[in-house]
Specification:
Elements (H helix, E strand, L loop, with lengths): L18 H7 L2 H4 L5 H4 L4 H10 L7 E6 L4 E5 H17 L7 E5 L4 H12 L3 E5 L5 H11 L3 E4 L17 E4 L12 E4 H7 L14 E7 L7 E6 L3 H10 L8 E4 L6 H13 L3 E5 L5 H11 L3 E4 L1 H9 L15 E4 L6 H11 L3 E5 L9 E2 L13 E2 L5 E4 L12 E6 L8 E2 L3 H6 L6 E10 L5 E6 L4 E3 L2 E3 L1 H10 L3 E11 L3 E10 L7 H14 L8 E4 L13 H9 L12
Helix pairs in contact: 4-5, 4-6, 4-10, 5-6, 5-8, 9-10
Bound molecules: 5'-O-[(S)-ethoxy(hydroxy)phosphoryl]adenosine.
Length: about 575
Amino acid sequence: MNVSDILQPVIENPNMPPYEEARANFDWKDVEKAFTWHETGKVNMAYEAIDRHADTWRKNKVALYYSDQKRDEKYTFQEMKYLSNRFGNVLRNIGIEKGDRVFLFMPRSPEVYVSVMGILKVGAVVGPLFEAFMEQAVRDRLENSEAVAIVTTPALLPRVPYKDLPHLKHIILVGDEVPENDEHANFYNFEEEMANASEQLEIEWVEREDPMILHYTSGSTGKPKGVLHVHNAMIQHYQTAKWILDLKDEDIFWCTADPGWVTGTSYGIFGPWLNGATSVIRGGRFSPEDWYSTIEKYKVTIWYSAPTAFRRLMAAGDDIINNYDLSSLRHILSVGEPLNAEVVHWGKKVYGLNIHDNWWMTETGGILIANYPSMPLKPGSMGRPFPGIEVAILDENGNELPRGQMGSLCIKTDWPSMMRKIWKNEEKFKEYFAIPGWYISGDLASMDEDGYVWFGGRDDDVIMTSGERVGPFEIESKLVEHPAVAEAAVIGKPDEVRGEIIKAFVALKDGYTESDELNEDLRRHVKEGLAAHAVPREIEVKDSLPKTRSGKIMRRVLKAWELGLPTGDLSTMED
Ligand code: WTA
């Protein structure tokens, strides 16, 4: 890295003080003072996110702008308060109690956000699902969690095998076709129930350690794991959103993530609303035109998205950007996957802003490592630990590795939004804490002399070739720098001589076609830019790469295809 590569902060007066200062003075205890429960002792995430603002000057402030191909709506904090009160009453009327799991299985819509808050208000636990899940994926999650109710749509109902799920007694449908009750379940019409429910609700006050949300996440093997978070997580959601997203009252914030993914709840719902910010939610599918016009239409100021989206926007070319007025943007962030330095430099060129990468996991509940608006940014790095968070790079025995060396990325326990359990899987939960005092992320990373953390890959994605340990991300980033390459995924393929050889899968940009010359050029590019041992011996061009719904390239699936092995759980794979 050259010093000239470092990007200086461009945001004026960020909420967060300079990094060293913020770190030196930080205490999670101080953050608690932001919440009403600090005074009243009455805890509930939904109260802090919505009702609290509805009782202040923010009551007529827009909490949510929602639009898709058919709808275009907005809701103030006060409207959200009353709508979620109504939904809380709907749930109470049908007998939902504190601690019950209530799932959401529908496309993004205002009803999703109203439901989340209503579920929380009666002390129940939210279980978000991706609308694209097929029956097996839905079944696994509802079965494991013993969900008692689900909010879904008539179109998705065939994928809810309620007859085989003895706990699932209540099905609330957003849409007109509501079946008759049968011996397995009662059916309700969302609109009708809402219309009949009272706008006044006694919130169920809970303990900070009471369950709040259950996010299922897939590992490389086995069934999806139910990661449980508690109301206490709000401390982290609030403070990270304030300092990393840099939310201010005049901001219009757009988190592009679906609530089926933890980013779409921690920072698509809780973080912004705890800060009293206005959120934009856009339904429907991704297209560069649609996204740029969304920014233009709402004058979005802060935009939180993912590398896969930025790479697709980059591949769509720079010209299209001239057709939109994106001048409202002042802050851009990315999460979910490694953000290639190339993308950061491109972002600087076309948006005039730094794209701030940050790192966390479903299990961590909130951001733990980030590039902050108040700190110089090193493109390709995930940034530095959040104040109050201690990160270390450990070897297999739990010893700290020297700066610059790649090892296991671990976090000193604990922090406010850490998961509290893996639902009905104590053994799995314990694996994360096998090194006493540390949370083991399962990612590989290194830390440089300045304390910036660099991503290496998932532990299980590491390649051993001719005795060298190679992380796929470096090679992928090098490949993406090549003008022909839109996306790249690199795996290790067993080889008798070398242990593993490096195989690269690439998707090409429009206008480029597969050829031996191109492959040679890609190899030369990696060799000259990185190292001879990092050169992919095999390169395969694909139309697209398999990804999760949150945009992560599924290297394990490519590897399984390559080796003719079972692919494991595919429920989170994009269509
Ligand atoms: C990966 C996402 C590189 C990582 C909020 C992690 C990243 C997993 C980054 C968690 C990043 C997330 N750079 N890799 N900035 N952010 N990851 O549970 O492997 O969907 O362990 O949560 O995504 O993914 P999850």
